[in-house]
Specification:
Layout (H helix, E strand, L loop, with lengths): L1 E4 L6 E4 L4 H7 L17 H8 L51 H9 L1 E5 L1 H10 L4 E6 L8 H9 L3 E4 L2 H8 L7 E6 L6 H6 L5 E7 L4 H13 L4 E4 L8 H7 L7 E4 L3 H10 L3 E5 L5 E4 L8 E7 L15 E4 L11 H16 L3
Parallel strand pairs: 4-5, 7-8, 7-12, 8-9, 10-12, 10-13, 11-13
Antiparallel strand pairs: 1-2, 3-6, 4-6
Length: 354
């Protein structure tokens, strides 16, 4: 080691030369001991650092080793392309979260339900069978007129929603919803035998063969309710509760009993054995009448169809009376719904006031 003065500033330049002993000490991992007495004292922080695991230690968790053919785990934060070999994700039918609902059971449930819309139709349904309502949707403007329905649904824990016009159009499937839509459980149709148990002595039953237009169905239901007809027979009783038909009926659907059947011939035979006469529109074999001269039997079954001239080919062989609606002759026939209204009015003139 040597110390020397350098320059006029008076500064001292100190130079240190490493000795052999220092070289030997530099090879060791020990640092110079700066503690008193030549012994290093370990503080609390030093002890905690010694105990704490450090990155790079053997205690650091290691990622699991994957096999060569093993796929990497999926991350909820990463978008991925679905492998073509993977099965399609299960459709829960709009139910949020994981669901264990069987698809077949879900389809059956949907088949048993129907949407009813229109203010008059929904009011009539609430008055006659509120227990059938599963869920309800309203726009704000109609809620004051459904105050009783809202109170009943709240008391009976029936879900209802106040939505805007656009949302209600999506729910009901039409823009002609009238501000309200009910999701309901369909009624099960009566059998012919069950209907006959409560039939009156003067009775009129409307049988619909191959009538599928919901607006025609709704118009006929409205005419039936207006003229006091109780029973409507068709293959699928659920047709009488389709949204468009019920809305067109303007509440008339709730005044009727739907009668279901799989075999029209057998159903007509049951009515004939119970004293009913089968009336078919149009000319055919047997007795032919015009509406202006026809005297309806006290128990009448009228069969209508959307086939040409409103005549049912299935019922032609079993009919007791063929009737023609006489008019000016400028048109060949009437709409099936209008034909039903004209014939029902004629029957009502004979038996409606009795």
């Amino acid at each position: 080691m040597s110390d020397a003065f350098n320059g006029k500033s008076g500064k001292v330049k100190v130079m240190y030369v490493r000795s052999e002993d220092d070289k030997d000490n530099s090879k060791s991992d020990k640092r110079p001991d700066r503690s008193r007495g030549g012994q290093k004292s370990a503080g609390r922080g030093d002890r905690e650092r010694e105990r704490a695991p450090r990155w790079g230690d053997e205690q650091r968790p290691r990622a699991p080793v994957r096999k060569a053919d093993e796929k990497p785990p999926r991350s909820a934060w990463q978008a991925r392309l679905q492998d073509a070999s993977e099965p399609e994700p299960f459709d829960h039918g709009g139910i949020a979260g994981k669901s264990q609902v069987d698809p077949a059971q879900l389809r059956k449930q949907r088949e048993e339900e129907s949407k009813v819309y229109g203010e008059n139709a929904c009011q009539a349904l609430f008055q006659s069978r509120p227990e059938a309502i599963v869920r309800a949707y309203f726009v704000q403007s109609v809620t004051p007129r459904f105050r009783d329905a809202l109170r009943w649904m709240a008391a009976n824990r029936k879900a209802y929603h106040v939505v805007d016009e656009q949302e209600l159009a999506k729910v009901s499937g039409t823009e002609h919803h009238g501000g309200v839509c009910f999701l309901i459980k369909k009624r099960a149709g009566l059998s012919v035998a069950d209907y006959l148990k409560s039939a009156s002595s003067n009775d009129f039953v409307l049988v619909l063969d191959n009538v599928g237009n919901p607006h025609n169905l709704g118009g006929m239901m409205r005419s039936c309710a207006f003229f006091g007809v109780k029973g409507v027979l068709l293959r699928d009783p659920g047709q009488l509760e389709s949204g468009a038909a019920v809305r067109t009926a303007e509440g008339g659907a709730e005044r009727l009993s739907a009668i279901g059947c799989d075999d029209f011939s057998q159903a007509l035979d049951e009515f004939q054995r119970a004293g009913y006469s089968v009336v078919v529109v149009g000319k055919g074999e047997g007795k032919n009448e015009t509406l202006s001269t026809l005297s309806f039997p006290a128990k009448t079954v009228l069969v209508l169809s959307e086939e040409r001239d409103g005549r049912s080919s299935l019922a032609a062989k079993q009919c007791d009376i063929n009737v023609e609606v006489d008019g000016s002759g400028q048109l060949e026939s009437l709409n099936v719904s209008v034909t039903a209204g004209v014939l029902l009015a004629a029957w009502w003139r004979q038996f409606g006031t009795k």
